[in-house]
Amino acid sequence: MVNDLAARAKQEFYPGQVVSCQQTGADFLFLCDNGVQLRLQVITDKVLRFRFATDNGFAPDFSYAFPEGVPARQEPEFLEFREKPDHYRITTDRLICTIAKANLASRVLDRSGSVLSEDEKGFHWEYDYDTGNDIVKMSKLVQSGAHYYGLGDKPENMNLRGKQFTNWGTDTYGYVKGSDPLYKNIPFFLALHQKIAHGIFFDNTFKASFDFAAERADVASFWAQGGEMNYYFIYGPSLMEVTEEYTRLTCPPELPPLWALGYHQCKWSYFPESLFKGIAKGFRDRQIPCDALYLDIDYMDGYRCFTWNPTHFPDPKRMVRELAEDGFKTIVIIDPGIKIDPNYSVYREGLQNDYFCRRADGPLMKGSVWPGLCNFPDYTRPEVREWWAGLFKGLIQEDGVKGVWNDMNEPAVFEKGTFPDDVRFSYDGHQASHKKAHNIYGMQMARATAAGVKQFSYPNRPFTITRSTYSGGQRYSSGWTGDNVASWEHLWLANIQCQRLSISGFSFIGSDIGGFIDTPDGELYVRWVALGAFHPFFRTHSSGDHGDQEPWSFGEQYAELAKSFIELRYRLLPYMYTTFWQYTQQGTPMLRPLAFLDQTDTDTYLRMAEFALGDHLLVCPITTPGADGRWMYLPKGQWFYYWTDEAKAGGAEVWASAPLDRIPLFIKAGAVVPMYPVMQYVGEKVVEEVTLHVYYKNGTETSVLYDDGGEGYGYQNGQSTTRRFKVKGTETGLVLQQETEGDYQTSFTTYHVVLHGLPFAAAAFSLDGADVAGSETTTETGLTLPSVVVNAGFTELIIG
Description:
Elements: H1 5-9, E1 12-13, E2 18-24, E3 27-32, E4 37-44, E5 47-53, E6 79-83, E7 87-92, E8 95-100, E9 106-110, E10 115-127, E11 134-141, E12 147-150, E13 164-167, E14 188-193, E15 196-202, E16 208-212, E17 219-224, E18 230-235, H2 239-250, E19 263-265, H3 273-286, E20 292-295, H4 316-325, E21 329-334, E22 338-339, H5 345-352, E23 367-369, E24 372-375, H6 382-390, H7 393-398, E25 403-406, E26 424-425, E27 432-433, H8 434-457, E28 464-466, E29 478-480, H9 488-503, E30 509-510, E31 512-513, H10 522-532, E32 538-540, H11 556-571, H12 573-586, E33 591-593, H13 594-597, E34 611-613, E35 617-619, E36 629-634, E37 638-641, E38 647-649, E39 652-657, E40 665-668, E41 672-675, E42 689-695, E43 699-707, E44 721-729, E45 734-741, E46 750-756, E47 765-767, E48 770-772, E49 775-778, E50 784-791, E51 796-799
Parallel strand pairs: 19-20, 19-32, 20-21, 21-25, 25-28, 28-29, 29-30, 31-32, 42-46
Antiparallel strand pairs: 1-10, 2-3, 3-4, 4-5, 5-18, 6-7, 7-8, 8-9, 9-10, 10-11, 11-17, 12-14, 13-16, 14-15, 15-18, 16-17, 22-24, 23-24, 26-27, 33-34, 34-35, 35-40, 36-39, 37-38, 37-40, 41-42, 43-44, 44-45, 45-51, 46-50, 47-48, 47-51, 49-50
Domain DUF5110: 689-757
GO molecular function: carbohydrate binding; hydrolase activity, hydrolyzing O-glycosyl compounds
Domain Glycoside hydrolase family 31 N-terminal: 38-211
């Protein structure tokens, strides 16, 4: 007799016939004759949750993706449930969902009847004898003309169709285009077909894979090596709305301090103190704006976290204070590995309180990283997170450090890659192995770090940065794209990865400008600074093995060019901060690929170089050496080239002339772009006047300016001002209106209104019914334009 038990153990299993369905409010529980269950929850009118259980039933409902462990829900405006002969139908205000009685197969349609998502095999699973887990799988039909976007930091073309990916946070030093997996684990993607968008958030922390019609051209699928088939269907119908819904579901971040949106300088490593302070002096002597300087692992005593090297930094409190007096915020790195050293207080505390991760049979998890053999905190335990947060008192409250940078938290272990599968985690009371906890380890470290930095920075706002994270990690930290390379390909990748992370809910992102590995030449560095000036996180970082990478390291010509782009960033800070505020309020991605600007235009679907920052800026970096410009696509509408004010019609490719002192940058017609005066650091001077660059439009356009002082928590108690501008233009005149919400007293009392692209001579200015005198001004780009100074509380300005 042939023993076929092993073969049978490998077979795929499917749901059986539905034998009952129970409705409890907006929850529906379907039970099959073979014990399979589907719990379908209406989270909102636009978000449906599908959660399947096999023979083990449902585990307690818990996910780190959500602040409270479960998703916040809204009462649906409309909900109808009907049983049909062969299926059940659930209808909300925005969606129709059918569940087949034969096998739980689902279809989701919009209210007009367009099919958005349809199961192919649907839910199925395979038993994994080695782990005891179910390998849970979902396959769906690829809709006609479908395109796929999102999935976090994947270094691939913007459109994911035809590709396959894995989420398993990995320290991928020197990755290249197509490397997979990378550092971050964001199992959320968007689908666009028939000009209608939806998203899928596969909330499963095990190693997960995604196939976007790679193996079979008509099937897209996702699966994980354990856990539940638990996913959220998120309806748009626009791509922008899908990302907003997902980001609100997993919760946007709080506002950062304004200085965190300034320029940052980092290197592995700046030491000793004299060199570190010399870097600071280099910025101030050259009048290159900079807000933050970073200390990598060599500031520590033998790489022991929360310590200072007594030789290199004998008096860190004094040093940090002196740097702060010159406007510099000091940021330090903290890794998860705690050196095994009985004389090291952090190690002793962790050991005494049993805060470190253990193997299955009880021994402490040991692994080699920078300090040598280390133990690693279990950040999935609340008491460990609280302990970890408390450790920052010395660095933040006592020494004056302003931010913390978490690295190596995939978690990375030398030679081994990461922890063994049998390492155990508390998982906030839901015991788990490393197979389940790996992808959230970095996020939970960032969570504990953010709590500590926030506690000891108060009343100021915290700043943290992480290399690894999971969905929802945007609540705790900013991020960067990891150990990239000084190459033109990596400049191209930085553009794509930051856009992709932004539409995946993680907008506070940037890349290591100039590349971490190897050394760029001056041209590559300047082109990268030009791109970085439009990324929310703006930092040069490099490996000390490969030479200097400060803005002046490539000669004075390149230093002046880098300086000009950094200065542009500082002028744009009110626009950047307003865009960040929109992100915190609505989940709106700060960086937006072309398809997000106009998904009715199929010419945008495959393009990836161009992106919008906020509502009104369109950027397209130069990513090839020796170029003096590039062809780029403008979305439909009217646009002005920032450097020349040349007007261009969208819906077509245009040539953007861009020698090394320019980046292709267009402003949407009708926009009001606020700018600050150039400062060497945020807070260097009181902003008494904001420049409003007003771009003509024959029609109407709205813009917004948000202000709360950029520091502290007064904004949470209403201490903020939102100013909404409306531009209404005709062939012979232009009207600028302002509506103000909130009573925060801004530091500025006047606007300098600069008018761009007027098709008529600006002969008369009327401010709230009274004539005022206009003038001319020369802009930073050398243009001479009509302008007028008005009080910041004005209601209506008429130009004719």
